[in-house]
């Protein structure tokens, strides 16, 4: 890849569609390694590497959703050689949604599908679960969410490394304010764990209000990091949705660029 922002975990030279994955707060590109292995080579799976972590750890993290979206939008032009979809988990779902809006504002090719995972739909009032103004509150939230990430706080050396990006990410989502605008014309698949402690199913289902192209709600067993235990199931959902948006045609790459939903489930 010619960009610092994306990681590819397996070649997909004959893929007709690209899936761009956006990690959760504190997460890195490797969060989607297992999903990428399930979907490659049918789809060209790229995972976003935010500044301030892993091989970008010497770069300052961006503590602002707008700055992250602006930077990602600037990296999208070389990826528009084929249809693409976004899969965002938690903070990544918010970024996927705002990135789709920003690409529309710039009149650039947008996603043919949005997979929004582990995140409630944006509202004007926001959510108290995003407003964590101290490290202690951030750590308490991570422990509440569960998953393997919570274990890092038992190791002081690892904690020193992960806290700067984690702190920046929660500052970004805490300061985010949704700006009303026309809904997207992109099919949406919403995924949420049935035991997620901060994302009620009803709040996740409200994403349907942000698209005119139909939404599909999938509730899977597990908590906020349900994906860790449901990779094959999630891969099947992604595969079916992206195949359903294909426009049949002999010998041609044909997926919609988010202009008109074809074969997608209706509103739930």
From TrEMBL:
GO MF annotations in UniProt: hydrolase activity
Residues covered by the Thioesterase TesA-like domain: 20-242
Sorted UniProt keywords: Hydrolase
InterPro entries assigned to the protein according to its UniProt record, in alphabetical order: AB_hydrolase_fold (IPR029058), TEII (IPR012223), TesA-like (IPR020802), Thioesterase (IPR001031)
Keyword Aminoacyl-tRNA synthetase: no
Gene3D superfamilies per UniProt: alpha/beta hydrolase
Region annotation Disordered: where it falls in the sequence: 249-268
Pfam families listed in its UniProt record: Thioesterase (PF00975)
Family: Belongs to the thioesterase family.
PANTHER family: S-ACYL FATTY ACID SYNTHASE THIOESTERASE, MEDIUM CHAIN (PTHR11487:SF0), THIOESTERASE (PTHR11487)
Record's protein name: Alpha/beta fold hydrolase
Organism: Streptomyces anthocyanicus
Taxonomy of the source species: Bacteria, Bacillati, Actinomycetota, Actinomycetes, Kitasatosporales
